[in-house]
Amino acid sequence: MKALVIGAGIIGNAVAWRLARAGANVTILERGRAGQEASWAAAGMIAPQAEAEGAGPFLRFCVEGKNAFEALLPELIAESGIDPEYDQGSGVLYLAFNDKDRAELGARAKSQREAGLQVDEISGEQARKIAPAVSPQAISALYFPHENRIENRQLTQAFLVAALKAGARLMEDSRVEAIETRGGKFAAVRVQGGDLVEGDVAINAAGSWASVIRGAEADNVRLYPVRGQIVCFQTRPNLIGPSIFSLRGYAVPRRDGRMLAGSTREMARYSKDVTLEGMEGIVRAARDMLPSLSGMRFREAWAGLRPATADFLPVLGPSPTIAGLYYATGHFRSGILLAAITGREMAAMVTGSKPAVDLAPFSPARFNNAGRHAGLG
After folding, report:
1. With a threshold of 0.70, does the pTM exceed it?
2. How far is it, in rounded angstroms, from Cα 15 to Cα 236?
3. Count of beta carbons in the 10 Å neighbourhood of residue 186
4. CATH code assigned at 301
5. Rounded to an integer, what distance in angstroms lies between the CA atom of residue 82 and that of residue 312?
6. Whether residue 45 is found in the same domain as residue 125
7. What residue spans of 227-328 are helical by DSSP H?
8. 120-168 tens-digit pLDDT
9. Is residue 86 included in any domain, yes or no?
10. Pairwise CA distance, residues 315 & 218, whole Å
């Protein structure tokens, strides 16, 4: 089977690796440079409880995603030769600064406990014992001791290198412009300049550009780029143990002393500009959480385009109108967390095996119900 994977971000690379390992002839087509879009710009959280805003199928999928990631990580490191710096046991502190914050976080904690997950509701004093740099203005916190972080850029490269070592082929600077069909079945993709690349199946993992590709308009799958800005500071390694969240931002430490502060949610079309307004909000939130670190040295800032659907759920599964076309996109803020499980489940589906988890809530067919989902734009 010849499989074409559209997009060399972390999702496309994970799918390509699993397909190549299963014996497929895999070609990855990337519009620019591999791994340089949303996967490069992320904060690298493997933290389903901190990221999910409520109970339901998506939270369950994220928890399964973390389990799948931890199960495959030793194989990925062995096959790629890249250590993506998975900080197990780092944890997440989610801070509340007033009664409104505390009530909202308390509701999240209740729904997560009802889903069978561990959540520790602690005082501000207890939070400062875990991370002394936490603001004295924090009145309480949720503590997720099993939430972790990873170096997302190295993880993206690890999936790509493992896929290439398994036999996949990478075509960079190959923007896919259209899906071509024969008799209602997928036949090829047309890339910039008009060339055709033929295949038996295609997996659209093009992120924010997934719905720009022509030829599958009848699926009604629409992706919206949501800009997220991040400001990076330099401090001392191991200065803070856990990642620090609030309802207004986050601060994620790296092993080398970098501190990533983020992030915005902006409808800015395909602009990856870093703005004064965006940086101001991020810096204010970081200072409120960690005021003792206000002297951190600025290092750099960047922005990425996170692929969102109208219901903020990923799109995973076969096209409802074109046999042989599949979607693996729309992961919004959770692409790093969900890469492993997406690669595993999509490879199973494409090769004719039964997925291990229920992907029905994320089916592309949900968008064929006219009027059900309103566009973000």
Report:
1. yes
2. 36
3. 23
4. 3.30.9.10
5. 31
6. no
7. 276-289
8. 999 999 999 999 999 999 999 999 999 999 999 999 999 999 999 999 9
9. no
10. 15
